[in-house]
Amino acid sequence: MFSSLRAKFEIFIGDVFGGINSAIIALPQALAFGVATGFGAGAGLWGAIILCFVAGILGTKTPMISGITGPSAIVIASIMHALGQDISTVILIMAMAGILQIILSMTQLINIVKYVPYPVISGFMNGVGIIIIILQLNPLLGYPTLSSTVESIQKLFINLGAINYEALILGLLTLIIAFFTPKRISKVVPSTVIALIVCTFISIKFGFNVEKINEISIAFPKFVLPHASFIEIINNLQYAIILAIILSSESLLTGLVCDSLTKNRNNPKHLIASQGIGNFLCSMAGALPGSAATMRTVAALKAGAKTKIAAVVSPLILLILLFKLSGFVAEIPLAVLAGILIKIGYDIIDFKLLKVIKYASKDDKYVLWVVFFLTVFYNLIVAVGAGIVLAALLYAKKVADSAKLVHKTVYDKDIIKLEKSLEKDYKHKIRVVHIDGQFFFGSATQLISQFDELLGTKYLILNYDVNDLLDISAIFAFEDIVLRLKSQHIKILLVIHDKKLYEQLEKHEIIKEIGEHHIFYSEIEAIDFAKKSLKKKLKKLK
Predict the structure, then answer these.
(1) Which helix (H) or strand (E) holds 88?
(2) CA-angle at 39, arms to 38 and 42, nearest 5°
(3) CATH top class, domain 400-541
(4) How many CB atoms lie within 10 A of CB 108?
(5) Burial tier of 396 (Cβ tally within 10 Å: 0-12, 13-18, 19+)
(6) Do residues 387 and 396 lie in contact, with contact meaning Cβ atoms separated by under 8 Å?
(7) What was the pLDDT predicted at 315?
(8) What is the per-residue DSSP string for 260-291?
(9) Disulfide-capable partner of 526 in 67, 217, 467, 493 (CB 3.0 to 4.6 Å)?
(10) At what angle do helices 118-135 and 149-159 cross, to 10 degrees?
(11) Which residues, other chains included, contact 306 with Cβ-Cβ below 8 Å and sequence gap of 6+?
């Protein structure tokens, strides 16, 4: 009994530390995104408090920390710009987006997100990162934030002639601290929090003449149900759909990351329903909606969070900080928030793909750059839609449904005898898995889910029968398969039939991950190797 109570106490302490850790990261981000959208810092902070608390209570069992994020902030800022800063209409749109999320959670449409090609996601995220950086260049010089990237670039050249050097000094110092704080320190206290405190203190101490947050409401928000005519709802439905898709997609992607780290499976419908309810309540309070935030969720998990208690602790910590530090928050210079947002924009950029982009196929590059430029200079949702359509057209000749796994269980008499004696405690198997058909983005996600059936296998012979090279989505999917199987202590023996495919996998270090001695050009050789290795292991067990 004592050990059980101790275990529960340790889990609780982990959740508390996870909640505190995620709240520290959320504070500067919520303030900065609130300002970036045009709603104000308070709307960002109250949104993080309300959404995280509601989604934490109603959401999945694993800790999912929610709040305003980069993509959702950019979409809201874009809608604000398109509607001429009409806040009441934007609040209506946010409420509609929450309702659409609840409706979406009752359908199978949420499964569509896993079929979006990686270059589309990467192009979108890179675009969002660059947008955030571009939009914060003028505030870095001491001028207001603009909603359009083109307008921001045009205004930047004008503002360079009359820089507010005090704002620039604070902004540059923020960037230096955010980017160059040693990792051993930033693991304890995030570099953006250090930058926020240090630069705000300098601004107060030396009386810098810069734009500040100035006012942030510490009063509990009043919940008001948005009123609108049927015509208004229809006219703004397109914006609500856009916002609902972005909020849901980011939550689902965070859910996948959380699943990978915790080895648990969250119910996506449950996740989106709780997010939708939370976002609807945020809009009623005049606060900003958001999604499950990857960075904050990972921070909570790494700090020891195990349950949804962490998602309740996090907003409570934010609430305490809001009431205790409201005076300090009001003094935060906008140039400091601009520096923090530039760091956030930089972190959003998908450097993982950019490092290997030269190895990607031409089709992947076309999709990536089309989505990227449309995201930055035109429209986020048009960009994603165009990317998906383009990817579908480029790969129309490849049929995803033809990709399947064919299982062949390989036994011999000796192995059967040995395995029967250890059947209760061990399930040693040799399996041959053939990937039939083209392994590309359309089939990669299907194949990943099928590999879950192989858990418990001791030696897995993966036979890639096709000679075609892999696209970038398939490469990352293949890497995920290898890491997942290795985490389950399954030995992977890879059989390939093409030297170019070997070179491609070698460039992406997948060969290194599997091991040179586990690569074969003949299935028979791989089977013989597995049999001999398994017999040795079973003899040792005897």
Answers:
(1) helix 87-104
(2) 130
(3) alpha beta
(4) 8
(5) exposed
(6) no
(7) 92
(8) HHHS----HHHHHHHHHHHHHHHHHTTPPP-E
(9) 493
(10) 30
(11) 11, 14, 15, 18, 62, 63
User: 10-residue block means of pLDDT along the chain (542 residues)?
Assistant: 70 84 85 86 91 90 87 86 85 94 87 72 84 89 82 88 91 94 84 90 91 76 78 90 87 78 80 94 92 84 83 90 84 90 86 81 84 83 78 59 50 48 50 65 54 65 75 77 77 84 86 88 81 73 56
Q: Taking the domains of the chain in order of start, what are their residue ranges?
A: 9-394, 400-541
| CA 274 – CA 59 distance, rounded (Å) | 5
Please list, in sequence order, all residues whose beta carbon lies within 8 angstroms of the beta carbon of residue 430, skipping any fewer than 6 positions away.
409, 410, 411, 415, 457, 458, 459, 461, 527, 530, 531, 534
Do 496 and 465 form a contact (C-beta atoms < 8 A)?
A: no
List the beta bridge partners of residue 404. 436
pLDDT of residue 410: 53
Q: For strands 430-436 and 404-409, give the pairing.
A: antiparallel
- Integer Cα distance of 77 and 38 in angstroms: 7
Backbone φ and ψ for 438, nearest 5 degrees, come out as: -75, 125
Long-range contact pairs involving 525-533 (C-beta distance under 8 Å, separation at least 24): 526/432, 526/461, 526/463, 526/493, 526/495, 527/410, 527/430, 527/432, 527/461, 529/493, 530/410, 530/430, 530/459, 530/461, 530/491, 530/493, 531/410, 531/412, 531/415, 531/430, 533/459, 533/491
Residue 313 · residue 16 · CB < 8 Å: yes
Tokens of 403: 């990709």
